[in-house]
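Q: Got a minute? One more chain.
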Amino acid sequence: MNKVYFLVFILIFGGAWNTFAQDEIYDEPIRIIDTLQESNSQKTSISHVDAKKSKRQMEKERYDALTAMEKKKEKLNRLRLGGNVGFQFGSYTYINFSPTAGYMVLKDRLELGAGPILIYQRYRYSQSYVYRSFVYGADAYARGFLYKGLYLEARYDPVNKPSYFTLDKRLWVHHLLLGAGYAATISKFGVFNISLLYNVLDNNESIYQGTFSDKVPLIVTMGVGFGIGGK
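A: Always. Here it is, folded:
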């Protein structure tokens, strides 16, 4: 009898175990992985990242190039090319070619510049007598801007010239001009300068004569300056 019970127990337990095992086997879903699709997806995402990086890189390079161009343009616009050019022909011939190059050391505040002074003069006293002279030297100036176009100016001009009293003698004459002026914009990158200057070192050999009176060395000068960078 005990054997019969034991066999029945084994049969029941074995059937339950088989059912449990089958449930365990078939409850887990089977997943099929498409490795080719995942590989293509990864490649697509990588290519999108590379495209974004390359676009950002191109934008950065374009920005850097634009910034460099703007900086170069600003430096060129700080450069001021100007000076004095004058001509007169007849019994008295006068040619003045005195270009200057300046630079805005402090933007909109301080301009420093210099250039040569070259003056040719010829006097025809008669058909048989003509006097010629040549004046050369240097012009150095500084302009400090106070408000908008208003500025203070200082110029130092040493020149070599024939003496007014002994024509066959040449000498160096020094000029120190101090005053103020105004710079008016005349184009996108040009200015017109007008200055009222006093010759502190005025003497009988000076090449500058007073604009309003020979006795008062007060001089009005005008000139044009251009930045070469454009806008």
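A: The first strand starts at residue 79 and ends at 88.
Q: Perfect, thanks.
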